[in-house]
Amino acid sequence: MGSAVSLATQWVVASNGAHLLARVSVRDFSHELIYDWFVRPPPTIQVVDYRTDELELNPEDLFGTRAVHFETAQNDVWDLLRGRLLIGHRLWDSLHLLNIRHPLDDTRDLALYLPFQPALNRNAPPLLNIPHPIIVPLADLTQRHLASVHHLPFRNPRENPPDNAEAQMLLYQAARQAWEDCVARGIPTSAPPPNQYRIGEHNYYL
Predict the structure, then answer these.
(1) Which residue positions in the chain have pLDDT lower than 50?
(2) Which terms does the record give in the GO molecular function aspect (predicted)?
(3) Per-domain residue ranges of the chain
């Protein structure tokens, strides 16, 4: 499987306004899809918005044979991530949906990678305490950095976790040498995750 995996998730909206995990996909360093399951909503919670216009998702998906209970998905993904480098885009969202933690030093979040934030002054020192990092959408990063060198299967305007996980791994691999060089030399390359995901009971990073 290798030492790095790419994680992508989808969510739906519950009657209390909470976001519920609806699908989770994981690809390994070789781009193999090693996990892809829909997630059943808890029986006591009503889903009021399946975000059908945004997602490649039908309500039936969450109750079919390819759906598992939340606890199963949570434990399965925890096992897959343990001891591995975690690649993703806005990883704090996925970790929050799964309610799991991962070592911050072992994450490579494309949404926080400073060279992917063109609005920042690259001649200035990295801004390590940005309260609201500039988040470039994954689709824009994919188009900007991969379209000219890869035949991209992910052109569907609707969000699709297996495709997102592949795009994330390709983006990381394109930047990997420079990124890991800086990490090895102690040169900051990323803004921190948003504060609300790093403090107290809502801290999703170890």
Answers:
(1) 1, 119-130, 157
(2) exonuclease activity; nucleic acid binding
(3) 4-202
- How many Å apart are CA 17 and CA 198, to the nearest integer? 22
Pick the CATH number of 4-202 from 3.30.420.10, 3.40.50.1240, 3.40.50.300, 3.30.70.60: 3.30.420.10
User: pLDDT value at position 127?
Assistant: 47
User: Which residues share a beta bridge with 49?
Assistant: 13
Angle at 152 between CA 177 and CA 67, to 5 degrees: 100
Strands (E), 29-145: 33-39, 47-49, 67-68, 85-88, 107-109
160 alpha carbon, distance to own chain's centre: 12
Q: Whole-angstrom Cα distance, residue 123 to residue 2?
A: 35
pTM: 0.88
What is the distance between the alpha carbons of residues 82 and 137, in angstroms, rounded to a whole number? 27
Which of 57, 50, 53, 52 has the alpha carbon at shortest distance from 25?
Answer: 57
- Quick one: how many helices (H) and strands (E) in the chain? 4, 7
